[in-house]
Write a structure and sequence with these properties.
With 356 residues, this protein is an alpha+beta fold. It contains 10 helices and 12 strands.
Length: 356
């Protein structure tokens, strides 16, 4: 009998970008005029130091970037931010990262900053007070402050990562160009750009009850459609196992469900029905949208379904044979300009005869 061969190819970089494209939206460039940012003081949870905007009044420019710990596109841009910091710090530019996400605790912010070796202050904005002052909505969203706290640039870092695409290199280096112009004493030629990223999870004010509640309605939809990927250790960039998880991402859930981006399913229904169709049923989509519109009521815990149990083994059945590469290959976090040469790896499956 011929042996069946199950091959599983996992491309972490591609999946990270895929997650980003599914969970993100681009905001249009802001239309309001130039604003001035007043003073603020926040804590860097890595060493509990207090950092004030006034500490950098002698700098030629201050780059404030709103970040998170789980947003895929935010994390994809961290190496670029470190490159820009290295490029401009000696020229009198100060970088500051601010985390305003409700669900990101100071401990998580500190761990994320240490893991990614961020050399500039990473500050926790409890209650999203500073994010509200800036009008920041997404991560990563950048503001460049010039003289006397004036916002001279607001938008994206560059155009390498966006919704549904990833370029090998950026073609528009918006932040870098803005900083070069500020340092040259020029007006920023493109003071605002659209921003792609996850919505900042602001402090919610949930209602205890509503016609649709998490316990009675929403938890079951998440178990059926979302938790397979959105749980610790799985591919989803954030967990949706608990009410508190879902509450933190309420506005983001509304956005991706309304846009039919989650759960991901791209097969055209005009060409047949599919046994593994992952798209949301219309009534489930409407339930989720009503739940968020009603301020995400929790309901009574006694209405919660039993927790779903997940297998940590092969979800499609154990294969007859697993082949492993003889050597590792390190994929760079940032693709070089010349690209990554195509790689060939030879693996001996150990077969001694061909099945007839």
């Amino acid at each position: 009998m011929a042996r069946r061969l199950a091959t599983l190819l996992i491309l972490p970089a591609f999946l990270a970008v895929l997650s980003a494209s599914l969970m993100l939206r681009a905001d249009k460039p802001p239309t309001e005029g130039v604003k001035r940012v007043t003073a603020f003081t926040l804590t860097d949870p890595r060493d509990q130091s207090r950092v004030a905007l006034a500490d950098f009044k002698d700098k030629k420019a201050v780059v404030v970037v709103f970040t998170g710990t789980e947003c895929p596109i935010n994390n994809a841009y961290l190496p670029r931010l470190l490159e820009l910091h290295k490029q401009f710090v000696a020229k009198g530019v100060q970088f500051l990262a601010i985390n305003s996400n409700r669900q990101d605790t100071p401990e998580q912010v500190a761990l994320h900053a240490k893991k990614n070796a961020i050399p500039f202050p990473v500050l926790k904005d409890q209650g999203n007070i500073v994010a509200d002052q800036f009008g920041a909505r997404r991560t990563p969203e950048v503001f460049v402050l010039g003289a006397e706290g004036l916002i001279v640039y607001h938008g994206r870092i560059d155009d390498q990562f966006g919704i549904g695409y990833q370029k090998s290199q950026p073609t528009q280096r918006d932040l870098s160009v803005a900083l070069d112009e500020v340092l040259a004493g020029k007006a920023v030629s493109r003071p605002s750009t659209s921003v792609s990223g996850c919505l900042i999870s602001r402090t919610p004010k949930p209602k205890p009850e509503g016609t649709v509640t998490y316990s009675k309605h929403v938890a079951r939809i998440f178990q059926k459609n979302c938790q397979e990927c959105h749980r610790p250790g799985a591919i989803g960039p954030m967990s949706l196992l608990t009410y508190d998880d879902a509450l933190s991402w309420g506005e983001m859930i509304r956005e991706v469900v309304a846009d039919n981006r989650m759960p991901p399913w791209y097969a055209d229904p005009r060409h047949g029905k599919f046994a593994n169709d992952r798209s949301l049923a219309r009534e489930d989509r409407e339930t989720l949208l009503v739940w968020v519109a009603q301020d995400c009521p929790k309901g009574d815990d006694k209405d919660l379904p039993p927790s779903r149990r997940f297998t940590e083994d092969w979800t499609i059945g154990k294969p007859d044979l697993v082949l492993s590469m003889a050597q590792d290959y390190d994929v760079p976090a940032i693709s070089p300009k010349e690209g990554i040469p195509y790689q060939y790896f030879t693996i001996d499956p150990g077969f001694t005869k061909i099945a007839g």
